[in-house]
Design goal:
The protein is an alpha+beta fold. The chain has one domain: Roll (Pnp Oxidase, Chain A). Helix content is 31%, strand content 36%. Helix 5 packs across helix 6. The longest helix has 16 residues. The protein is elongated, with a radius of gyration of 20 Å. 28% of the residues are buried.
Length: 205
């Protein structure tokens, strides 16, 4: 991933992006070309492992060899930037549209996990992570044990040994302050994706 210094974020911030995104696309190379799957993930406390699962009926996991290289893409902000948002264009009219976004890219080695205990632990960890700030919270054990057993049989686990992570936050840092402020204020009153981008711009002031 091309990351100019102005848009670079450190490793800890990149992991925050992964957690904020909550889900991302995992891409592998197969004999028939690139294949992707979009899945929710959990990250180990030491950042060495990412875990997820996929439907057993999804052929993606069967295409993955144990230890296959995998690329994880986790975008958590994305919005078009119109030059009309730039007050500076009055004096400097040579401007073009662009895009503001925040993304983390993770590279690792993929392992398929097809063990009931592993899957139960992963599903519980995933549910706990995403239910943490909800009220009321839903708990795995709110469902019957027989139903859960059937559901666990219908999925396959994915575990990634993390090799590297890189993050990028392109949020108008290359524009004059007056333009950055105008873009952020415009986003704040816009669509859901624009409002999300505005929140990230506030964080990176």
């Amino acid at each position: 991933m091309y990351v100019p210094a102005k848009f670079s974020i450190d490793e800890e911030a990149a992991w925050r992006v992964v957690r904020e995104a909550g889900a991302g696309s995992l891409v592998i190379s197969t004999s028939s070309g690139l294949e992707s799957v979009f899945v929710p993930v959990t990250v180990s406390d030491d950042h060495r492992t990412i875990r997820s699962h996929v439907a057993r009926a999804n052929p993606w996991w069967r295409l993955a060899q144990d230890g296959s290289e995998v690329l994880g893409l986790f975008p958590c902000a994305s919005a078009y930037v119109s030059p009309s948002n730039y007050p500076s264009r009055v004096d400097s009219p040579d401007v073009v549209p662009t895009w503001n976004y925040v993304i983390a890219e993770v590279r690792g080695r993929l392992h398929v996990r097809d063990d009931a205990t592993w899957l139960d632990d992963q599903v519980r960890a995933l549910t706990a992570a995403f239910e943490e700030h909800r009220s009321p919270q839903w708990h795995v054990d709110d469902s019957s044990s027989e139903y859960l057993r059937r559901q666990l049989k219908a999925i396959v686990g994915l575990e990634i040994d993390v090799v590297s992570i890189q993050g990028k936050a392109k949020l108008s840092q290359n524009r004059p302050a007056v333009d950055r402020d105008a873009v952020r204020e415009n986003f704040a009153g816009g669509s859901l994706s624009e409002r999300n981008a505005a929140e990230w711009m506030y964080l990176h002031e």
